[in-house]
Write a structure and sequence with these properties.
7-stranded antiparallel sheet; 2 helices; globular
Length: about 130
């Protein structure tokens, strides 16, 4: 399902949200069966340096049941990657063991739309020049 995600990190203000002063927020919008859907997730920041921010939700928390996510923001090249990890252990099997069908890890990369369009245009242009 096509979606759009807005992602931001803040050094202060997350104590009540995620029990960590620094936090990141991911807001994802998509159309599901003709209806708009918005999902907002808050992540405590585990580390924040001049070159990188790492945030993650709990690998042992009750929710979400099946997965926990780790996000890395590379400040040098302005990229964001996310790895979903399947939760292991009792209580994380899901209804009728549906969680066990998920991969152990799955990687995603958030891409700036303008940068991606430029990259694709340059790639397509170089392909045409080679022909």
């Amino acid at each position: 399902i096509p979606s759009v995600t807005d992602f931001a990190c803040y050094r202060r203000g997350g104590a009540l949200l995620v029990n960590s002063d620094a936090y990141c927020i991911a807001a994802t919008a998509q159309i599901i069966y003709g209806e708009p859907n918005v999902d907002v997730t808050y992540y405590p920041v585990l580390s924040w340096s001049k070159t990188r921010i790492v945030a993650a939700d709990s690998p042992t928390g009750a929710f979400p049941i099946c997965i926990w996510s780790e996000i890395t923001v590379n400040l040098a090249d302005k990229t964001v990657s996310l790895t979903d990890h399947r939760k292991l252990g009792k209580g994380h099997e899901g209804f009728n063991n549906t969680c066990l069908e998920l991969p152990l890890t799955q990687n995603y990369h958030l891409i700036d739309e303008v940068s991606e369009r430029v990259r694709r245009a340059l790639r397509d242009g170089s392909k045409k020049n080679k022909e």
